[in-house]
């Protein structure tokens, strides 16, 4: 699991937003690539300072981060989503999240909430973070199309919510989601220069065993939210998710059965994209919690538990090898407990494990290697 910085700068662009996307709409993807190619140590993020209680806001005082700014409105949204989602998980599990909060001297900070060894969940975590940092000037120029900006580092802002939840029962699926907002300031001495901004995020499901009704419910809930904003969103963002969560060294297995994933979105107004991100974050509880409630008490065998542990191993492999946010965060010295919060408590690597033909495990592998259509 990554900070808002790593989520915003380090995510790959897998699918074009539109075949007619403008140069402006494509620019953030170019910026992200430029930032990744730059020396990662050049991205300036201050060391965090632990605090006893989360502040009312993680934003800097004064300046342009007032209550009406997009920065403030996005932080308000992710803080509310964290509260709502953690409340729903606590109600289902019967145990409370542990909360850690931190700030940074120049502004920003984060709140990590983790529920570990619960009644229902082996491990569940929900992070929010606000980051003020410095990005290489080539990334800024790529994002804005400007040739100026000098050689100085460019101030940026990023905020996001991210989560992974691993239930105990092998019949109950794991879920991951994150939603984020990113923008740059103008370079010093170039007050009239343009800014770059974009939204990104997604929600995806990782079951050990395939239940068609569960998959249809999960994807159908996400599709309903997408359709409310643009009927082109769900098919586009489902494909994006199917293409992103690939474990290449495992014969192109997907990590799970996908969901939706989008990034570098600035092809419509900030108001529209904030509303979309808000609704998507609000869909996590109705899309996911009923599935865990349905399966948390299912019977299972020791062999099925071992299969779940092997799939957890695949989850670890994807996150540590391919997830750009995680790997970028590790290289840049981000808050390690928050970055690795996505990993399960336990996992298994069994040599040359091949599921029996016609088994439920073989059906799961087929679904992971060949993405299916779950809703029309």
Write the layout of secondary structure elements.
Blueprint: H1 4-10, H2 23-37, E1 49-51, H3 70-93, E2 98-103, E3 108-116, E4 121-135, H4 137-144, E5 154-167, E6 174-184, E7 197-206, H5 212-229, H6 233-244, E8 246-247, E9 253-254, E10 258-265, H7 270-282, H8 284-295, H9 302-321, H10 324-331, H11 336-339, H12 360-369
Antiparallel strand pairs: 1-2, 2-3, 3-4, 4-5, 5-6, 6-7, 7-10, 8-9
Helix pairs in contact: 1-10, 2-4, 3-7, 3-8, 5-7, 5-8
Structure description:
This protein has about 375 residues and is α+β, with helices and mostly antiparallel strands. Helix content is about 40%, strand content about 20%. The chain is built from 12 helices and 10 strands. Strands 1-2-3-4-5-6-7-10 form an 8-stranded antiparallel beta sheet, with helices on both faces. Strands 8-9 form a two-stranded antiparallel sheet. Helix 1 crosses helix 10, helix 5 packs antiparallel against helix 7 and helix 5 runs antiparallel to helix 8. About 5% of the residues have low confidence.
């Amino acid at each position: 699991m990554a900070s808002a910085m790593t989520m915003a700068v380090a995510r790959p662009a897998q699918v074009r937003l539109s075949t007619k996307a403008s140069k402006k709409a494509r620019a953030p993807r170019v910026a992200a690539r430029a930032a990744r190619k730059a020396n990662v140590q050049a991205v300036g993020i201050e060391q965090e300072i632990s605090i006893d209680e989360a502040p009312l806001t993680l934003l800097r005082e004064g300046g342009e981060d007032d209550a009406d700014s997009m920065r403030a409105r996005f932080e308000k949204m992710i803080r509310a989503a964290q509260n709502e989602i953690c409340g729903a998980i606590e109600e289902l599990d019967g145990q409370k999240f542990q909360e850690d909060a931190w700030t940074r001297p120049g502004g920003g900070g984060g709140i990590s909430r983790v529920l570990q060894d619960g009644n229902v969940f082996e491990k569940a975590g929900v992070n929010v973070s606000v980051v003020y940092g410095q990005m290489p000037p080539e990334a800024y120029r790529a994002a804005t199309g400007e040739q100026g900006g000098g050689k100085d580092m460019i101030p940026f802002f990023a905020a996001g919510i991210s989560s992974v939840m691993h239930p105990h029962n092998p019949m109950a699926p794991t879920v991951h989601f994150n939603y984020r907002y990113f923008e740059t300031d103008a370079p010093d001495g170039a007050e009239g220069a343009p800014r770059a901004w974009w939204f990104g995020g997604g929600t995806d499901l990782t079951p050990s065993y395939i239940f068609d009704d569960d998959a249809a419910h999960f994807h159908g809930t996400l599709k309903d939210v997408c359709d409310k904003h643009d009927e082109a969103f769900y098919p586009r963002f489902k494909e994006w998710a199917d293409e992103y969560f690939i474990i290449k060294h495992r014969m192109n297995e997907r990590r799970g059965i996908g969901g939706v994933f989008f990034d570098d979105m600035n092809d419509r107004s900030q108001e529209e994209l904030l509303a979309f991100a808000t609704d998507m974050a609000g869909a996590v509880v109705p899309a996911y919690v009923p599935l865990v409630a349905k399966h948390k008490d299912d019977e299972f065998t020791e062999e099925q538990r071992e299969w779940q542990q092997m799939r957890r191993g695949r989850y670890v492999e994807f996150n540590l090898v391919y997830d750009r946010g995680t790997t970028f965060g590790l290289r840049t010295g981000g808050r390690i407990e928050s970055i690795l919060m996505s990993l399960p408590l336990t996992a298994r690597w069994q040599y040359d494990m091949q599921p029996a033909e016609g088994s439920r495990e073989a059906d799961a592998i087929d679904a992971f290697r060949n993405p299916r259509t779950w809703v029309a």
